[in-house]
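Many introductory courses stop at the sequence. We go one step further.
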Amino acid sequence: MPDRGSATAVPAVGSAPPVDWSELSAHAPDGLAVVDAAGLFVQLNAAAIALCERDADDLIGMPAPFELACPAPTDAGGLLEDEPAEQVSIWAPVAGVRREFAYRTRPLPGPERATVVAFRDVTAERHRQRRVAAIARTSATLASARSITAMLDAVAREVVQADALAAVQIFTFDGAGRNLQIMGSAGFRRWPDFFDRLMRCRSRGAALRMLDALDGREPVVVPHRWGMIKDDPAWEPLREYLSELEWDSFASVPLMLRGRAEGVLNAFFAPGQVVGRPTLEFLVAMAEQAAVAVDYAALLHEERALARREERQRLARDLHDSIVQQVFSVGMQAKSLSVLGGRGGPVAAATVQRIADEIEDLSKTVLADLRAMVHELRPPTSAAVGLGEAVRALVESTGNRTGLRFDLHVGSGLPDVGSEIAEDAYRIVAEAIHNVVKHAEAGAVTVRVGVRDHVLTVSVADDGRGLRAARAAAAGGSDGYGLTSMRERAERWGGTLRIRQRSAAGTAVRAVIPLPVSVPHERAGERIDVTARVAN
């Protein structure tokens, strides 16, 4: 019986003569290579040379991309993984080219300790796997993320990781559909004055290709975009920002929802990457995920706004009932005075004084409750009087009611703040002041509101007992919801909220919200098509 491990071929009766094993290996469909003990290529077949995309003479003696000492895994592969006996390595023959090889190894007999490696190109296959996984993870994030910023940041990260891009930005419109803001990003760091610089570029004549994608409601691809703009004087305000990463081409995909563009996803490609149809299909799929996230956040905001209105109405009914009882008591006391006076006889001064004192106390209680509760339920809206005046009225009312000493600083630029952002900023200040009154046991509060470098900043700092003590006192209460509400209001506009313990005493709450920029855009239009408009 022939040895199964030998290279001897036993021809079947009547078959063609056997082919030499060296001939078979030379024409095998998969790459075959011999690697020496130092990990260098010694011999490659034709398929291996083609996969490595280098001349045979260059490959001999070159380090191979395979781990020879690492044993192949024996456990079962995952849902999106290759066969368990295979390992995967990265091969970059030239700049801008990246290949993924799935391979198997087997040591060769002999003192040279060489290894034979069989490998194949799985770049496209694993790329598809990463894209499918990215879409699946993004769908899961939509159900678990607590804010629109967190959701869109997750979408941007998934796109960057799945396609190895340089960076991704996601812009969305506000509720009015006129202002554009950056709500998700990966790769580029956040610049507080990004939009201000972007508008300066536009005023210098720079073409914002993402606006073309929004207006045309279809993807726009610009090959070698960085080479076009890096020396353009119009882009000077953003040159430092755009040069932080190595990138080349650019694509912009609108976020379409029910036939309307809700924003745009900008993708910055690494040098050497080609923007083909599969890439565009993936970007469109992820842009659709981002659009769903924006829609979900809008619906959630409307639901919470409705819940707040219903809660105000309930509180108003409860307040009405309590105030009615107090006013009724005042009326009864006044009636008793009327009865006493109607008897015609003398009335004891002490009796009159007692009834008058009770009426005065009840009147003061009613007036204080009315002022406090009416302001809580129906404060002067920032849209009607402006953010600065609304905060000023809140500070004065709270100071008169509680005796707290307020130091208010109202900066410049507040007239440029849109009504919706102003309302959320006002609510952040109101909630922070409410927490001071309820938990801090403070004597003085400093409130600052202002705009600088196209960024709205509001802060509330007190000299009370500090964050840890206040949190301990609020344990089991509703304070956590208030902090969550403040953070969500800031993140709704791509901002941040920070709460910290002051070094001396007390707590500081600070919200930073980048202001959106107005851009021309037609909201009506047809549904998106995956075909891109390629710019030359």
